[in-house]
Amino acid sequence: MLRAAGVGAGDEVIVPAFGNVEIAEAVVLSGAVPVFADIDRATYCLDPDAVSAAVNSRTAAVAVVHRFGHPADVRRLRDVGQRHGVLVLEQGESDAPYDELAQRRAHAAYLSGRLGGVITPDGVEGHGYQQYVVRVPGNGRPDRDAFARAVRAKGVDCRVPVKTPAHRTPKFWRDVCLPETERAADETLALPVGASMSRRELQRVVSACNALGGLLQPAF
Q: Which of 46, 68, 147, 186 is most deeply buried (CB count within 10 A of its CB)?
């Protein structure tokens, strides 16, 4: 998409740092330079205000990524693009069959209605729940990692969705302040929500997480 849009040497492309590095690598392969902008706390997608603040005379495009099945605010991002005269390119996430998507949403609703001790995802319209990502309150990464170990010990598969934001990797290191990106990397945990899960398996997730609720206290 970048090459087809004429993006190349001397251009900058605004990308999210929260996620994998493939987007930044694609920008480099086009000959342009990736510029990292912060994310929205609820969606984990690019924050339109942060994107607007990152635009300069070299900005050629914004690469929008929909994260975890949560749609980015494309309307506002396109408004930013029109206002500044830059392209807005979307990387879509693969669509699941309707039955599978409906089942994941039902499982997500079940978890969100019963989980305690974690901050459940914002169940906005259009969320596909490719991953069911919660936040573990407390003191950041140490508490999140301890919570994950305890949940795994109870037989629940979970994983950290983004271990290191792209702007903190050796290849793309940037001395830039992205507080929501770094906070999300420290607090988020993906719990299982697959369409094939049984009600008993979902109950095990709830039981394992709720048993830990209150053990981790926010820092003051």
A: 46
Tokens of 158: 């979970």
- For residue 57, what are the contacts with CB-CB under 8 A and spacing of at least 6? none
Q: What is the reported pLDDT for 155?
A: 94
The CATH-assigned architecture of domain 12-91 is 3-Layer(aba) Sandwich (3.40)
Confidence of residue 213 (pLDDT cuts 50, 70, 90): low
39, 45, 48, 51 alpha-carbon torsion, rounded to 10°: 60
Domain residue limits, the chain: 12-91, 98-210
Q: How far is CA 149 from the centre of its chain?
A: 21
List of residues 6+ apart from 75 with CB closer than 8 A: none
| Both structure tokens of 45 | 């997608």
Q: What CATH topology corresponds to 98-210?
A: Aspartate Aminotransferase, domain 1 (3.90.1150)
Q: HSE, CB side, 13 Å, CA atoms: give it for residue 129.
A: 28
**Pairing state between β 12-16 and 33-37:** parallel
pLDDT of residue 138: 87
pLDDT band at 44 (very low <50, low <70, confident <90, very high): very high
